[in-house]
Amino acid sequence: MQYGDCVKSKPLLLLNIRQLLTMRSVAPGPRRGPALSDLGILESAAVLCLAGKIVSVGTTKDALRDPWLKKNRKKIIELDCRGRVVLPGFVDSHTHPVFTLARLVDFEKRISGASYEEIAEAGGGIRASIEGVRKASKAALTKKVFAALADLAGHGTTTVEAKSGYGLDLESELKSLEAIRAAAREWPGTVVPTFLGAHAVPPEYRGRSQHYVDLVCDEMIPAVAKHKLAQFVDVFCDHGAFSADETAQIFTAAEKHGLAVRAHMGQLSETRLGPLLRYQPASLDHMDHVNDADLPALAQSDTIATFVPGANYFLGLSKYPDARRFIEAGVAVALATDYNPGSSPTLSMPMALSLACTHMKMSPPEAIAAATINGAWALRLAGCKGSVEPGKDADLAVFDASDYREIPYWFGGNRCLLTIMNGVPSGRSFANHAL
Ligand SMILES: [Zn+2]
Asked: At a CB cut-off of 8 Å and minimum separation 6, what does 300 contact?
């Protein structure tokens, strides 16, 4: 992986795009219902980027006739897309990249039918990741996060939300967030850090979860806010993790310290959403188990329901979130990888799209909107990310496809040829400027 920082200052022109999915805005706010299917496709398109921003979007014919472009052609880096598909870089709004090792014990044990408790007794489960992160140096964690960011970019992702949550003590959570910050500085894409101290009750607080919640609220959140290490506070709100009351307590502390909130919700069991929507969470993620009666309030809010079908796939579940029920109720939905070592070890947004189409009956256009513009809404970055429009950040992905539906269709491989992150191209094909 090499990043062409040297070219950031030069204008970059993408030409001969068969389908450019502009995702240009059709109405204010996140996409809902039929608007999810409007990709704003421009054919035979061209995009001009300058100083990390998109400056114009149009047809290749018009671009080549433009007097400014004609005059400055020698100064411009041209990328001939040769009839391929270009879309806004994916916005992966849910990842857990700060861990040291794969959880192979869990993997094999689960295949052989072991329960969660049996896996934990065999030395697996979240405890294995906690030990790894607590023992690791910040430099080692930074290296791991950077490797994940580079791999994400290789699959077409240009904006990533990255959570802490395997340290679960003050020092290790701050170390995790510092590793995210250090890795983000080396990566041309955009990283949104999230503090997930309330991921699980760590072993030393077993049976005393209220004490741990107090530690999260009274020590961890103030320290994270003071050092500006995160934009969001996340809570795993579920049976066996944190209750709705504990989540509300943590959200209140986050609010007090000027941090926005989001939550893991409804993965294993149903929690009523009303009391938590009051905190205007940016997103509620998983959403396998949600009460029908909560959908109207969710649809009236700007909270995004983010589905992470990679977790359902990897845990071998036959049931997936009922995306159609949410879309038909007018809820704004997004898709993310949930990259993590226990339940979703994938960095591939195209794989998440494929699962959303095949197992959740989302149409290919709906899945693409959920993975781009609505992902940007889930991170409160829709003003600069998630669509290809003048003034927005130059975040693009070029796929080896002549029709966008091929992105979820060719599952399990990687057809991303190139990503452009804040105007910086990177990918297998960039070295000779030929795609
Ligand atoms: Zn997660």
From this structure: none
58 forms beta bridges with 46
| Average pLDDT rounded to a whole number, residues 168-182 | 98
Interval between CA 264 and ligand 1 midpoint (Å): 6
> What does the H/E/C string look like for 112-177?
CCCCHHHHHHCCCCHHHHHHHHHHCCHHHHHHHHHHHHHHHHHCCEEEEEEECCCCCCHHHHHHHH
pLDDT digit string, tens, across residues 354-404: 999 999 999 999 999 999 999 999 999 999 999 999 999 999 999 999 999
d(CA 176, CA 194): 10
- 96 CA distance to ligand 1 middle (Å): 6
- Strand boundaries in 201-282, DSSP class E: 232-237, 260-265
User: What are 214's two structure tokens?
Assistant: 């107090």
Give the Cβ contact number of residue 69 at 10 Å: 18
- Note whether 362 and 331 are within 8 A (CB): no
Q: What pLDDT is attached to residue 1?
A: 38
Environment of ion ligand 1 (residues, CB < 5 A):
338
CA of 95 to the centre of ligand 1 (A): 6
How much is the pLDDT for 105? Answer: 87
Helix (H, G, I), strand (E, B) or coil at 406: helix
Cβ distance 98 to 137 under 8 Å?
no
Residue 429: pLDDT band (50, 70, 90) is low
26: how many CB neighbours lie within 10 A of its CB?
12
- What's the confidence (pLDDT) of residue 433? 53
Distance 179 CA to ligand 1 centre (A): 18
DSSP 432: T
The span from the CA of 336 to the CA of 152, in Å, is: 12
Provide the pLDDT for residue 114. Answer: 86
For residue 71, count CB atoms less than 10 angstroms from its CB and return exposed for 0-12, middle for 13-18, buried for 19 or more. Answer: exposed
Please tell me the total number of residues recorded for the chain in this structure: 435
Tell how far the Cα of 317 is from the centroid of ligand 1, in angstroms.
16
* Nearest Cα to Cα of residue 235 among 222, 245, 224, 225: 245
